[in-house]
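Discrete fold record:
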Amino acid sequence: MLDNPKLFKFDATVIAIEDHIMTITLDRPEKKNAINEMMANEIIYALKYAAENNQIRVVIIQANGDTFCAGGDLKGMTGAEQLSSSTVPSLGDVEDISLLLRNLNKPVITKIQGNVFAGALMIVANSTHAISSDDVRFAAPEIKRGIWPFMVMAGLFRVMPKRQGLDFIMRGNAIDAQTAEKFGLINECLPQEELENAVNSLAQEFSSLPPNTMKMGLKAYNQQDRMEFNDALPFLREQLKACVEGDDAKEGITAFFEKREPKWNGDIDES
């Protein structure tokens, strides 16, 4: 059980677990939280743990410092940075963060307190929810460094309209939070002083909802997103049948007729 809060300080991140919520904090503020190999390994480790731990229902990704994340560490890309030995074993590459976020099948909220650049857009675009301060700016400036944001595109074009997304990466110019909200890159932008409460409230709301149904629904969403429409409908019909026959639906319907709050099973069914 996760009744007691747990805090783990790694080399480039801080991981906290409390009340069914895991919070991953990017913690290289002196480097604008640029993602190097060490940070990538730690994020991957945390997401894998969240995927396998049935008691974790929600993940929040946030950052220390005045920048959310500057993207990939260019020194690391060129081999100029010498990394110290991490306390977390190598479990994958940076792009695996996108895959883990996309396939976690649990709510993932990115809390954006500062500017977002380049590869950090993979975190924003592949989370289920992204909420930012209203003074934040977003940019994919790779083209100005002679680089194309190849890995960013997979998630970006699943949340942003194609024309706006193409202009965004072709020119490399920053957009403000209001534009990012308009184009679907984020769900909402708020005054900085409201950001913490808004994200915490959303995370607590998700953690109170039926975990098995949430996981089943998000998994089906991802699967049907890769299907043709005519194939998606019969697949979703079978998913609905299984959902209605599940324990969450039985408890929810019973609670409705008994005029009480439902009591969800604490464990997520992995079957």
